[in-house]
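# nightly structure sweep
# worker-07 picked up a monomer target from the shared queue
# config: single-sequence mode, recycle default, output format = structure tokens
# input follows
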Amino acid sequence: MTAAGPGTAAGQLERLLGARLRDCRSLGGQHGVGHYRCVLADGRVAFAKVAGEQLSAGRAGFGAEARGLGWLGEAGAVPVPEVLGWDDGVLVISWVQAERAERRAAGRFGRELALLHAAGAAGFGAPWPGTIAGLPLPNEPGESWPEWYASQRLLPYLRLAVGAGTFGAADARLVETVAARAAELAGPAEPPSRIHGDCWSGNLLWSDGRGVLIDPAAHGGHRETDLAMLALFGAPYLDQIVASYQEVAPLAAGWPARVPLHQLHPLLVHVCLFGAAYRDAALDAARRALAAG
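# output follows
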């Protein structure tokens, strides 16, 4: 194990885990968060995240991630890592031994994702402040998903994109039109589902013949959001995931046309993170969402 001074990652892990920590090594990181493979005193392997100096502990979102994993795990549907310890600057979870995706595992994941969503939520939003890729993620409660989605998912990131100069006035008006028309674009009303909230293919691992969800932005939301996120960056065997999902919980008619509406939020997040590289994709999703209405 590397030198464990109080300000080092090893020091922070030792402070959190104490005698439970035997060893750790760096795996790199992203979004200002260091990733580590840890070995515990009982022989178990764990995965740790440690907020780097450029990212304040409060922005790391480990509390939201830890609570979200616990909340998703309570449904007993899709497997999630066990939270082994956390504080504002460190999160330690059980290790997931990743494997290659297989069609049979994708089918099982689709059925289990439907059961996760069916576990439901008390309302739209979450009782904890969220983060996504180091950005604040509003989770104020709401009773109407279209209004909640507009106010908590679209407009906050539009304001960030405009403030950074990535979006101009015409771009802003386009996204504001989607937000204003969300109620007519959203399809039939549905009760709050228990969703992962950042369900892109990189947050779906395959292990022991099942899909395992990691790194959630969990909240009460619309179930089509998770499916749209899986499609955004190409989850393997997506056709099988969706077909198996529909066996358990058929989606409302017209759901494919609503995919761009649900993808607009993560694309706006990417605009805020990476600038103009995602501008055209976000604006195209906004136009397609409106055209589908």
